[in-house]
Amino acid sequence: MVIQLSSQINSAKKEDGFAKILGHIGRWQILVCATVSLVKLSSGWVQMAYDPSPFENTIVSEWDLICSRSWLASFTQTVLQFGILIGSIVFGFLSDRYGRKNTFLVSITALIVLGFAIPFAPDYITFTVLRFFLGIATSGTMVVSFVLIMETAGPNFREILGCLFQIPFIIGHMSVPLFAYFFRSWDSYCLALAIPPVIYFGYFFLLTESPRWLVSVGRVKEATVIVKRACEMNNLPTTKVEENLSKLAQSIQSSSSGPKLNYSALFRKSLRLRTACCCVMWTISGLTFFGFNQYISQTSPDPFISVAAAGAIQIPSNLLSIWLIKYFGRKITTVMFFTLGGVCVVVLGVVPDHFWITLTLGTLGVSCAAIVASTIYIYTSELFPTVVRNMAMGSSSMSMRIGSMIAPFVSNLSLTVSWLPTLIFGFAPIAAGIVCLLLPETKGTTLPDSLEDD
C-alpha cells in the first residue's frame, strides 16, 4: 500500500509532457473530441435493441422464426455482441501496433459498408453473419475513438471529455424509437440507420494520428507536424516542439526497448492485478448496465417510450459523473455507485410490487450503472500506459461484452427461480465495488507512456 501511494504521489507531481506543450485544453482538443465522439451515435443504434412487436415486418415473419426456430431471433443479437467482443481484441491490438488513425478508418469503412449490406440480406444466415461483422466494426470505432480522446486531453480535462464522449451514445439510444416509429419494416429500418454514418467518411479528411502514439513509437517528425498545427490553434509557442517531443520519445524508447508488445504485456507483474480487476469490473458493468436497461424497458407497455426513457435517464447521470470523478476521484465514484446500484436491486427484490416503487428503484439502478460505465472508461485508460492502452481498453471492452451476453440469460432465470436474477444483479455489482478497492486512484496523475512509467 505504501509503495502504491508513493508511486501515485510521484506520478501526480510529474507533469504531463504533452499537456506542457499543447495545454490541457484548447481549440484543437475540443475539435478532435467533438468530431471523434460523433461515431458513438452509431454505437447506440447498433447495440440498444427494443421490443420488435410494433413492426409490421420483422425478421421473425420474414424468415419464419417460430416454434422450434424461435430461438434464432434472439441468437442474432448474441452473435452481434460476440462480434463486438472479438472486435475489442482485434482492434485493440491493431491500434497499438499500427496506429489509432488507420485502425479507426478501417473500422468506420467496414461499419458503413456493412450497414448498407444488412437491409439487403437475402436469408437469415447472411443477415446473422453480416451482423457479426457489424459488431466487430462497431467495437473498433468504440475502442479507438475513446483512446484518441483520452490521449488528446490534458489530465485536468480528461474527466469532463471522457464523460461527454458518452453523450452521443445516449442520443443514439434515445433516437432508436424514433427510427422504429417511422420505419416499421426491419429492412427499411436498417437502411434508415445505415444512412447517417456516411458522414463518417469525413474522418478521412479531418482526422490526424494521435501525437502521443506517434511519439511512443519514435515517429517524432510526424508528431511534430501535428503538434505544431495544434499549438497554433491553441495560440501556444511552437519553437521547441520538436526538441521537446524528441526528449519524450527518447525517454519512452529507452524504457520500452525490446520486441513489440502484445496482449501478454497486460499480465506482466506490474499490470496483472490491474488487468484482472478491470476485466472483472467491466464484465459486471456490462451485466448490470444491459440488465438494468432491459428492466426499464419492461416497466412500460409502450416500447417507444420505455427505450427513450432508458436513454434519457443516462444523460443527467453522465453529467453528474463529471463532477463526481473530478471531486471524489475515479476509485471512490466506482466503488460508491457499483454498491448503490447493487443495493437498489436487492431492495427491489424485497419491496412490494408497486409500479412507482419499482420504477424509481429501476431508474436509480440505471443511473448508477451509467455513472459506473462512464467512470471505468476513464479509470481504465489512466491505469495503463500508452504502449498497451488500447489493448487494455480492448480486453476490458471484451469483458463488458461477455457481461452483456450473459445478462439476458440471467434475466430469463426468473422463469424458473424467481429470486435468482435479483440475487445476481444485486450482489455482482457490490462484489465489483470490493474488487475496485484493490486498484490505485488515478485522479490528477500523469498519463503513463511506457511500462516503466507505471
TrEMBL record:
Keyword Transmembrane attributed: yes
Sample GO molecular function, one term: transmembrane transporter activity
Membrane topology: Multi-pass membrane protein
GO CC annotation terms, alphabetical: membrane
UniProt keyword terms in alphabetical order: Membrane, Transmembrane, Transmembrane helix
UniProt entry tagged with the keyword Thylakoid: no
Main localization, broad class: membrane
Gene3D superfamilies the UniProt entry points to: MFS general substrate transporter like domains
Compartmental location: Membrane
InterPro entries: MFS_dom, MFS_sugar_transport-like, MFS_trans_sf
TM regions (residue ranges): 70-91, 103-122, 128-149, 161-183, 189-207, 273-292, 304-325, 332-351, 357-379, 391-411, 417-439
Record domain Major facilitator superfamily (MFS) profile: where: 32-443
PANTHER family in UniProt: SOLUTE CARRIER FAMILY 22 MEMBER
Name listed for the protein in its UniProt record: Solute carrier family 22 member 5
